[in-house]
Amino acid sequence: xxxxxxxxxxxxxxxxxxxxxxxxxxxxxxxxxxxxxxxxxxxxxxxxxxxxxxxxxxxxxxxxxxxxxxxxxxxxxxxxxxxxxxxxxxxxxxxxxxxxxxxxxxxxxxxxxxxxxxxxxxxxxxxxxxxxxxxxxxxxxxxxxxxxxxxxxxxxxxxxxxxxxxxxxxxxxxxxxxxxxxxxxxxxxxxxxxxxxxxxxxxxxxxxxxxxxxxxxxxxxxxxxxxxxxxxxxxxxxxxxxxxxxxxxxxxxxxxxxxxxxxxxxxxxxxxxxxxxxxxxxxxxxxxxxxxxxxxxxxxxxxxxxxxxxxxxxxxxxxxxxxxxxxxxxxxxxxxxxxxxxxxxxxxxxxxxxxxxxxxxxxxxxxxxx
Amino acid sequence: xxxxxxxxxxxxxxxxxxxxxxxxxxxxxxxxxxxxxxxxxxxxxxxxxxxxxxxxxxxxxxxxxxxxxxxxxxxxxxxxxxxxxxxxxxxxxxxxxxxxxxxxxxxxxxxxxxxxxxxxxxxxxxxxx
Lengths: 370, 129
Hints:
The complex is a heterodimer of chains A (370) and B (129). Chain A is an alpha+beta fold. Chain A has helices spanning 17-22, 42-51, 71-78, 126-136, 162-167, 214-222, 231-240, 276-285, and strands at residues 12-13, 26-30, 33-38, 54-57, 62-67, 91-97, 103-113, 116-121, 144-147, 153-158, 182-187, 190-195, 204-209, 289-296, 307-310, 313-324, 329-337, 345-349, 352-359. The longest helix of chain A has 11 residues, at 126-136. Chain B is built from four helices and nine strands; from the N terminus they run βββαβββββααβα. Helix content of chain B is 20%, strand content 34%. Chain A binds chain B through residues 1-2, 4-6, 26, 37-38, 41-43, 232, 235-236, 299-301, 303, 322-323, 330, 350, and chain B through 12-14, 27, 30-31, 33-34, 36-37, 39-40, 42, 58-60, 62-69, 88, 91, 128-129.
């Protein structure tokens, strides 16, 4: 066995730290936040989301508000999507790219009102996203960018039972809400922005609220014995759903096209935006590498950074790997050279080549539940 | 966290039960809790000669992979095949059903040197948590 080190550095607490302690969570440093890694069994937490429901504390996520009459125009210039075309109440997955087309973060943008957008960023990238949004909106006099991370708590309920559980404690008709939409309402009597979004491949909701209300909302949702799930389960859930993670599948050296997410780049929108020229060129030339899904044929788990082999030579690297409770075998996503994307593949698992089968992403699709 | 008094321990968070010439080895409750659910154990090879401190297998959890070391010198005589079907037995019963392998101790070898008592191991884990 190897060294086991405790968490000692100074980390930010979420508003739910006392709840996590009460639940006996194993905590970890995640992007400068003290976050629950797991509460007990990762497999049980994963399965709860797939077959029932579980609660996540996502208060570490960055929330940045862009408001004012020019908010939509400023965002159209800042990100690769087309936020100004969203209707009030709509949500969209998008990206912030560098001028060279590399990905600085992937984001969810909610249009909360005609002149108010909420941009949700990865915790590790919140400062970068904030700085870029401020700088990219400087030419838009009617747009104001404000970091609301520390005045926003975020609780997610994910899983097929999520709508039923949430409907008992909210005034919103959550069962009728469309996927990727949001609305203002109350949860457990507290004001909240409730969105039918998530990062697990299941139906679910994300509840943005005041930090002081987090515990009350959490307790109301947990009342019927809904378990909590930590970051470890969140990672296997999103991996099974084929969803990319910044720092693994996405980064400044990756373009949206390589990540298989070219559809989020709206080259058809009017006006210039940061990265347009580089992204248009990348769209025309086709990607040099592609993101693939692999199911391990051995039980040794492929992990981030392991080489992918084909025909005796290295053709790529694993970006994310882990056990898949839903498939019962280890799975991985990997970037491989476009001219080697047909396989067959094996993965170098600490010096031994383990065969792995190419599979279409996502690994798990709730609409085709087995 | 449980640290049975009758066992011996290592700084690598393994336990050893010595019964005559046979040592049974597993990982501690402390280690199992720190790892989270064990998802795969690469078991030692039956018949292999191991020396104390040799890596002889791997324990994989959701987030990590750890080397398994032999705390004693001898020949691997048995491995816990049940772990192939249910590796999380290590989490549920680290000292009973979750045992990992058995070694027939080499006669005359300094087989049990450097092992910790339960009290010493508890001190070590208290310092780490």
